[in-house]
């Protein structure tokens, strides 16, 4: 019975070894053997669902605040199975909504504070990595957004103006063609903006080692344990196929994109697949040609987001959106691979870096990230149901999940500090539309943004900003 019920929630988990889900899991330095799962019912203080960054950071800060708290983390697969073990490894202060839209909605001061909290989160991740001796190849080299063609320059100018709008212009620097090419050689690169608050890291090593750190602090992680139902109340309860977990303080839903698989949250978040390709390690000579010695995170101004990392072991990771949204927000193992999107990513690697024309790609993978209807993360603790949530980072979750963990700690431990005043604390996004509207809207936007990118490049003309897709995508 238990196994059958689990199969329903876990249908997006296939049978392949966990190391095959991403290069990061493959190279994380441990053998990914699952920890024992839940056997029978138990009572704890806090039960966290999901052993990715959100769940682990929340456990970390809760136990720092109150070391005697009994914390259990229930994970349907293994720690790091989700986006945390598969992402582009950007630990960035970039937030899921633009500064312009935040200022419009929350005002200049609140936006500056939010942005400051994001800067701090990048450093906080670096600090914990250092104090806990986590070997995650953290390198804070900043981020460069690159205009490949004159048509991308207005987007860079907007970026600079946004930082000026909130008095944070000292965080960014415009790079003309020469300044940019002294850092990195990218074909057709016209200019860039350097933002200093970004690091790159090995997310697989971070998530797997953070799990051990949290265990050393006293948390118990139970793997291969899917939560099937959540019942809120004075003593909220988690139902699994192997027993129930009753809690005295709180349940924390830290399942990000996967939250959609649980009925009460089905329309709270949509899973969007982001895909990655990775080159073989590049030779010393090739790196001499490309430069990129500071390992800055790199992206371009395209609407169909792209993100690059020079890895610690000398490869180029090239990730991007563009894989299609699936009907009814479904999640499946096979969606991690989309041949057409992976092919485009590999072609782009060769266009950006012509010196790589004969380079081999050793890995392709992908995963789902969670997007809310207003692109705001929802970091909440409902005192009535005693259920907390942290989701909706829209692909900017490596640093934001750390902030989410600290916000949830303040809310759950009842030690409110400055973080609970941030706009995403106790934020409730409106629900996504029901199908078929959701499918039609998202698929249209994905298709139209891709077309705008192609046209911009072909005609060397900046996007107008007024097309339907751009307006639907404003955030
Ligand atoms: C390909 C890709 C690239 C990305 N690149 C970047 C990047 O470069 N920088 C950045 O900031 N962000 C990036 N992101 C986003 C970032 O990885 C995520 O926002 C972040 O990892 C979310 O962490 P999380 O712990 O909330 O969720 P996850 O890491 O997805 O963890 C959720 C966990 O919950 C478990 N779970 C789900 N349902 C259940 C259940 N019912 N019962 C028990 N367990 C359950 C899952 O197995 C999973 O382990 C990327 C995402 C993807 C997919």
Assembly level: single chain
| Overall body shape | globular
Strand content: 15-25%
The count of DSSP E runs of length 2 or more, i.e. the number of strands, is 18
Structural class: alpha/beta
What ligand species are in this complex?
A: flavin-adenine dinucleotide
Please bin the fraction of helical residues. 25-40%
Rg, Cα atoms, Å: 21 Å
Alpha-carbon distance between the termini?
A: 44 Å
Low-confidence stretches: none
* Highest CATH level, the class of the domain at 140-199 and 271-372 and 448-474: Alpha Beta
Q: Please tell me the CATH architecture of the domain at 140-199 and 271-372 and 448-474 by its name.
A: 2-Layer Sandwich
Q: Round the mean pLDDT to the nearest integer and report it.
A: 94
CATH topology grouping of the domain at 140-199 and 271-372 and 448-474: D-Amino Acid Oxidase, Chain A, domain 2
Domain FAD dependent oxidoreductase: 45-411
Pfam families: DAO
InterPro entries: FAD-dep_OxRdtase, FAD/NAD-bd_sf
Biased composition (Polar residues): 455-467
What is the compact description of this entry?
This protein is α/β, with parallel strands linked by helices and 475 residues long. The chain has helices spanning 2-9, 23-26, 53-65, 99-106, 108-131, 153-165, 177-181, 203-216, 284-290, 339-352, 397-412, 437-459, 468-472, and strands spanning 42-49, 71-74, 90-92, 143-148, 172-175, 189-195, 198-200, 220-222, 227-231, 237-240, 243-253, 270-279, 297-300, 306-310, 316-320, 361-371, 378-382, 387-391.
Question: What is this structure's SSE topology?
Answer:
Layout (H helix, E strand, L loop, with lengths): L1 H8 L13 H4 L15 E8 L3 H13 L5 E4 L15 E3 L6 H8 L1 H24 L11 E6 L4 H13 L6 E4 L1 H5 L7 E7 L2 E3 L2 H14 L3 E3 L4 E5 L5 E4 L2 E11 L16 E10 L4 H7 L6 E4 L5 E5 L5 E5 L18 H14 L8 E11 L6 E5 L4 E5 L5 H16 L24 H23 L8 H5 L3
Parallel strand pairs: 1-2, 1-11, 2-8, 4-13, 11-18
Antiparallel strand pairs: 3-7, 4-6, 5-6, 9-10, 10-11, 12-15, 12-16, 14-15, 17-18
Helix pairs in contact: 3-8, 3-11, 4-5, 5-11
The chain binds flavin-adenine dinucleotide.
GO cellular component, one term: cytoplasm
Protein name: FAD-dependent oxidoreductase
Organism: Sulfobacillus benefaciens
């Amino acid at each position: 019975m238990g196994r059958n019920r689990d199969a329903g929630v876990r249908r997006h988990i296939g049978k392949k070894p966990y190391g095959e889900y991403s290069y990061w899991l493959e190279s994380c330095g441990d053998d990914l053997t699952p920890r024992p799962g839940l056997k029978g019912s138990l009572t704890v203080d806090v039960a966290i669902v999901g052993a990715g960054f959100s769940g682990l950071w929340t456990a970390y800060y809760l136990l720092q605040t109150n070391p005697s708290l009994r914390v259990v983390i229930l994970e349907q697969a293994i720690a790091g199975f989700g986006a945390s073990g598969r992402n582009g490894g950007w630990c960035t202060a970039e937030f899921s909504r633009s500064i312009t839209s935040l200022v419009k909605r929350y005002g200049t001061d609140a936006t500056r504070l939010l942005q400051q909290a994001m800067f701090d989160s990048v450093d906080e991740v670096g600090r914990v990595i250092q104090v806990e001796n986590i070997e995650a190849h953290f390198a804070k080299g900043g981020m460069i957004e690159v205009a490949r063609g004159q048509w991308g320059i207005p987007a860079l100018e907007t970026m600079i103006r946004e930082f000026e709008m909130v008095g944070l212009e000292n965080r960014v620097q415009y790079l003309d063609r020469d300044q940019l090419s002294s850092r990195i050689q990218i074909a057709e690169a016209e200019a860039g903006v350097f933002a200093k608050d970004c690091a790159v890291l090995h997310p697989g090593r971070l998530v797997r080692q953070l799990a051990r750190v949290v265990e050393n602090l006293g948390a118990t992680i139970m793997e291969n344990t899917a939560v099937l139902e959540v019942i809120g109340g004075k003593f909220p309860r988690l139902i699994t196929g192997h027993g129930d977990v009753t809690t005295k303080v709180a349940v924390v839903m830290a399942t990000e994109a996967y939250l959609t698989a649980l009925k009460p949250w089905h329309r709270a978040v949509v899973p969007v697949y982001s895909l990655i390709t990775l080159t073989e390690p590049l030779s010393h000579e090739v790196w001499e040609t490309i430069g990129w010695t500071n390992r800055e995170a790199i992206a371009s101004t395209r609407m169909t987001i792209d993100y690059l990392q020079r890895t610690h072991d000398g490869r180029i990771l090239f990730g991007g959106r563009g894989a299609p949204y699936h009907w009814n927000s479904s999640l499946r193992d096979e969606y991690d691979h989309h041949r057409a999107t992976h092919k485009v990513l590999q072609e782009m690697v060769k266009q950006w870096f012509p010196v790589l024309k004969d380079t081999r790609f050793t890995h392709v993978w992908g995963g789902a990230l969670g997007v809310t209807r207003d692109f705001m993360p929802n970091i909440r603790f409902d005192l009535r149901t005693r259920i907390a949530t942290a989701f909706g980072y829209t692909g900017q979750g490596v640093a934001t999940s750390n902030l989410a963990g600290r916000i949830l700690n303040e809310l759950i431990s009842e030690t409110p500090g400055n973080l609970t005043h941030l706009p995403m604390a106790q934020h409730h996004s409106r629900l996504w539309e029901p199908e078929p509207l959701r499918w039609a809207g998202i698929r249209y936007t994905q298709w139209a943004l891709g077309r705008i990118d192609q046209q911009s490049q072909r005609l060397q003309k900046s996007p107008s900003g007024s097309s339907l897709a751009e307006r639907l995508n404003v955030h």
